[in-house]
Amino acid sequence: MTLNPHLAPQAPGPANPPPALPPGGLRVVALGGIGEIGRNMTVFEYDGRLLVVDCGVLFPEDAQPGVDLILPDFRAIEDRLDDIEALVLTHGHEDHIGAVPFLLRMRPDLPVYGSRFTLALLAAKCREHRQRPALHEVREGERRDVGAFGLEFFAVNHSIPDALAVAIRTPAGVVLHTGDIKLDQLPLDGRLTDLAGFYRLGAEGVDLFLVDSTNAEVPGFVMPERDIGPVLDDVIRRVDQRVIVACFASHVHRVQQVLDVAAEHGRRVAFVGRSMARNMGIAAELGLLRMPEGLLVDLDEAAALPESKVVFVSTGSQGEPLSALSRMARGEHRQISIRAGDTVILASSMIPGNETAVFGVVNGLVRLGAHVVHQGNAKVHVSGHASAGELLYLYNAVRPSNVMPVHGEWKHLRANAELAVRTGVDPESVVIAEDGVVVDLVDGKARVSGRVGVGHVYVDGLSVGDVGESTLSDRLVLGEGGFIAITVAVDSTTGRAVSRPTVSGRGFSDDPKALDAAVALVEMELSRTEVEGITDTHRIAQAIRRVVGRWVAETYRRRPMIVPTVIPV
Amino acid sequence: MTLNPHLAPQAPGPANPPPALPPGGLRVVALGGIGEIGRNMTVFEYDGRLLVVDCGVLFPEDAQPGVDLILPDFRAIEDRLDDIEALVLTHGHEDHIGAVPFLLRMRPDLPVYGSRFTLALLAAKCREHRQRPALHEVREGERRDVGAFGLEFFAVNHSIPDALAVAIRTPAGVVLHTGDIKLDQLPLDGRLTDLAGFYRLGAEGVDLFLVDSTNAEVPGFVMPERDIGPVLDDVIRRVDQRVIVACFASHVHRVQQVLDVAAEHGRRVAFVGRSMARNMGIAAELGLLRMPEGLLVDLDEAAALPESKVVFVSTGSQGEPLSALSRMARGEHRQISIRAGDTVILASSMIPGNETAVFGVVNGLVRLGAHVVHQGNAKVHVSGHASAGELLYLYNAVRPSNVMPVHGEWKHLRANAELAVRTGVDPESVVIAEDGVVVDLVDGKARVSGRVGVGHVYVDGLSVGDVGESTLSDRLVLGEGGFIAITVAVDSTTGRAVSRPTVSGRGFSDDPKALDAAVALVEMELSRTEVEGITDTHRIAQAIRRVVGRWVAETYRRRPMIVPTVIPV
Questions:
Q1: In this complex, which of B217, B471, B499 lies closest to A568 when CB atoms are compared?
Q2: CB within 8 Å: B410 and A511
Q3: Which residue blocks in B512-559 are alpha helix, DSSP H?
Q4: Which of A21, A86, B167, B443 is 20 to 30 A from A103, alpha carbon to alpha carbon?
Q5: Could you give the maximum distance between any two Cα atoms of chain B, in Å?
Q6: Could you give the CA distance from residue B247 to residue A113 in angstroms, rounded to a whole number?
Q7: What is the CATH number of domain B225-373?
Q8: pLDDT score of A189 more than 60
Q9: A293-325, pLDDT tens digit by residue?
Q10: B330–A8 C-beta distance less than 8 A
Q11: Hey, what CATH class is B26-220+384-441 in?
């Protein structure tokens, strides 16, 4: 019996409703994304009206078994849906757009603002949910007034094309939200983060700066995406067998470089995995991915080509068990079987928590004889988030009065806060406000004013929210120790057992006789309860639970769930 | 509903019993530790007699929920226990000695050879199991004949004192097993890996070389352990609040450096965690840890000292949920509460699979205001295993005829094999033989001759082996989706329900009405089985499982375990 490492997660602080927002003040609260990496969603309030920036999902950890997705907690706005002026999306990653369909269920006519590629990805997602959201395309450099909120959009560089930062002007002051950002000075598409715009805004005066914290702990600068091309070229030019490259399905520039190298070496390309094919189709259509005529082939054509004439571009870089790459590693992929001497390139990061799964895939591929290239042995990945060195540039450009680190766990938020202070921001004006903590910008000062309840909202299968902490806690107990079910029918007037009790376990033991000794124990207890005149089935069940629980703890030193059922007949 | 990433682990190859070992040949088979990191155990056979090197445990992964430990699979030797001449232990880490008590249960009089510190740690472990093994202390440079096996021991450097490599001489040839090894050229205790001895043995001729693969993928050389002292000094000298250092409880040299730095800065030291206090006590007693008089205080004394006058040395560096450090991070430790400005140093590696737990602890500490120093932001850890550069030294010293990489997953084994080949070993003579694969050394050639069954043997609570793959597979299903139990009593002659069916779920939903609709469904099905004259409770149960399973899949798109119980009355 081991204890689950996650049974006592850090509880969020208690709710503490803030006072009314003073006239002329701006209120900011994150319903997700601060204190965690994922489900980004920040709500801004001015004069009774709301603006939402991003609405993403978080992928569950071991402590949340069986859950598909975790949504931001909409409770703080669910009674004020009509107050929302608009939803602004900074870019098209799942942790920024994945929960939009769930928000649209509550407010189908919500105006959604975003760049062309972002909205195209959202539209594809919404089609799967049979939704047709009201989309408003915006571009970098553009300004839009949305109710009381004056929006201005800035080009930023990230691991997906067409990302935006957004400035929000209200009489309370100027807010700048970076979204996810880095400062690649040689971006593949030439679209630089608009540092000039940030300097201009900084000169105008930025009252509150919300800054991506993901890589704040990492010193220095992220290498240009462009530098990965030559590494891919160097690997692919040396081999004369199959090459499989796995990366994120939205990383257009990474895929672009694979395509370019493939073309250079006379190889055709096949996309493997539904999301990869879909997203690259959208990117090509919007002119964000250059695909030379005839380069692309379908999977069956590719499988028939000579091994030296093909590159597969696949999903599965995080070790997802159902992905094409995991199937290949297990020797179970229908069209692609790995042969000794094949090359697999994991052109991707390893998201914390996925290490075991990714290493499992790598070991499986190596066992089959593949040569596996990954960020541990070659420069085949760069991050999409600004490192500390780049964040310093941002702070020095914007020179904000107040700073609120976003997008990160505590260690990232704290590291980002320290960077802000080192560039001269008053420590009093750097506010680490995890999910639910309410920050009010009043008279140019950002201060915590209270806290609203923000919990985890789970999507499991078709339903949202019915799986909660109690169900997850039961799953953790069941997953660790299984259960023992004891069933008996009793005469409801005398409390006498009218059947032999059945005692059976699942997830408890492979030994079919493991629970045999418990039957007599239950029978003895039933005699006792009968003698004592106990007829209440609930009390009889409790008595059974107690004796079986004690017996199993002493005999096996384990803690399965004990599930007694007493049927009155 | 998500699918568990581990439901389809890579199956080991089928068993294929080897032919009889030719006279004069030596047989080698790993019952653990090759193809995985942990539960190291290698069996050597010559002329019908067996020698075992190491007998460790493996700690379970997510795919093995609720399991405490995984043992080597003793099946291949359980009928031949009396053939075992001796067990040789290379060092005192759990993955090399942890399973010894389980082997001793089968063969209590088994002679055990090892160095002084290794045997002291084993003796402490065996006392907990109420065992008194037959211990034979050996030292580096020593030779012992154990039946047909001529043993010679060599000093090696690792992350625990007093580690040994062992040479095994039989008429079949000379075998050298490194155990866990690195080549720190400035070891804290001055005890260098005996490279001179390896050169001498190499000149004599090594027929088979078993080599630690753990860091074979890592280029270059491991930094000296000694270089960590100045980093610790640099951190501790700057702070005037509490310092907590977490590291492995057997890492005597790491702890030594903490003690030295503490003494230098006038701080007393308290050990936190039972294994830390016990192991450091043993090390001090054997003269392996220098502890100045009066430096050590107990936890209550330490808690009463001024904050600038104490260093806590704690377990919990892997995020173990019950460890002192995890309790501190949750604000639940009885004696030590973290205050803003305290410093926590994780002077440790992060074992793959523990990332989420370790980051959870770091975030908890940072949230409480602690400054956390770890290998990601300071040089406070070095590995105990030779990197590629060091392994090349070993191959060039030993110049083996045959090589068998040990201690590693496939990616490590393959990388180690490549290093052997690059130093000139014939690729045909480098044998990657995962657990159970039988390697015979005959006429100076090592070749695979067959395979014996090696599975995972689980310890869960008090029992060994009764939790198997079927139980784990049930736990995975239960942990992902919980279960729905349906119970009904039926008249055993007519098949008619004599109670209303109860339908209840655990780990399924927080909504108490989630399963209400299933009751009517079950009643309808019971009417149907009654009308069809079905009285067999097993068939009735199957019918119930089918309708409820289909209903829940359609309604919720989830796959809980469906557990029908039909009681005949």
A1: B499
A2: no
A3: 516-531, 537-556
A4: A21
A5: 87
A6: 50
A7: 3.40.50.10710
A8: yes
A9: 999 999 999 999 999 999 999 999 999 988 999
A10: yes
A11: alpha beta
The catalytic position among B333, B385, B412, B456 is: B385
Average pLDDT over residues B519-544: 95
- Note the pLDDT tens digit of each residue in A80-101: 999 999 999 999 999 999 999 9
For A477-488, what is each residue's pLDDT tens digit? Answer: 999 999 999 999
B453: closest CA of chain A, how far (Å) = 18
pLDDT tier for residue A13 given thresholds of 50, 70 and 90: low
> What local confidence, expressed as pLDDT, does residue B10 receive?
36
Cβ-Cβ pairs closer than 8 A, A with B, add up to 251
Residues of A in contact with B319 (CB under 8 A): 5
pLDDT in tens, B436-460: 999 999 999 999 999 999 999 999 9
Catalytic amino acids of A?
212, 385
- Residue range A239-277, pLDDT digits in tens: 999 999 999 999 999 999 999 999 999 999 999 999 999
Whether A480 and B66 lie within 8 Å, measured CB to CB: yes
B177 is in an annotated binding site: no
One of 3.40.50.720, 3.40.47.10, 3.40.50.2000, 3.60.15.10 is the CATH number of A26-220+384-450, namely 3.60.15.10
Per-residue pLDDT for A50 more than 70?
yes
pLDDT at residue A12, as a whole number: 54
- Which tokens sit at B139? 């030292």
Torsion of CA B187, B191, B193, B195, to 10 degrees: 120
From start to end of A157-237, where are the E strands? 163-170, 173-177, 208-212
Residues 6+ apart with CB under 8 A from B446: B28, B207, B208, B401, B402, B404, B429, B431, B439, B440
How far does Cα B53 stand from its chain's mean position?
A: 16
CATH code of the domain made up of B469-568: 3.10.20.580
Integer CA distances (angstroms), B289 to B261, B271, B286, B293, in order: 14, 14, 8, 12
Segment among A2-6, B57-61, B431-435 with least mean pLDDT: A2-6
Does the beta-carbon distance from A479 to B474 stay under 8 Å?
A: no
Nearest-Cα residue of chain B relative to residue A503: B565
B460 is in an annotated binding site: yes
Q: What is chain B's mean pLDDT, rounded?
A: 94
| A113 burial type by CB count under 10 A (0-12 exposed, 13-18 middle, 19+ buried) | buried
CA distance B428 to chain A (A): 15
- A166 vs A141: CA distance, rounded Å: 10
Q: What is the pTM of this model?
A: 0.92
Q: Which residue of B has its CA nearest to A472?
A: B507
CB atoms B68 and A1 under 8 Å: yes
* Residues in Cβ contact with A91 at an 8 Å cutoff, skipping those fewer than 6 apart: A97, A114, A115, A118, A158, A160, A162, A163, A164, A179, A180
Domain covering A482-568, topology: Ubiquitin-like (UB roll) (3.10.20)
Q: The dihedral of CA B177, B180, B185, B190: what is its sign?
A: negative
Q: Which of A352, A471, A508 sits opposite B508 (nearest CB)?
A: A471
Residues A203-222, mean pLDDT to the nearest whole number = 97
CATH 3.40.50.10710 domain extents, chain A: 225-373
Do the chains contact at A460 and B67, CB–CB below 8 Å? no
Q: What percent of chain A has pLDDT above 70?
A: 98
Backbone angles phi, psi at B63, to 5 degrees: -75, -5
| B contacts of A58 (beta carbons < 8 Å) | none
Backbone angles phi, psi at A365, to 5 degrees: -65, -45
Instruction: Take residue A21 and report the two structure tokens written for it.
Output: 């927002």
Summarize the confidence of residues B130-151 as an average pLDDT.
Answer: 97
| Helix/strand/coil for A139 | coil
Nearest to A507 among B1, B478, B567 (CB): B478
Q: Which of A326, A478, A508, A558 should one mutate to test binding to chain B, selecting the residue with the greatest count of B CBs within 10 A?
A: A478
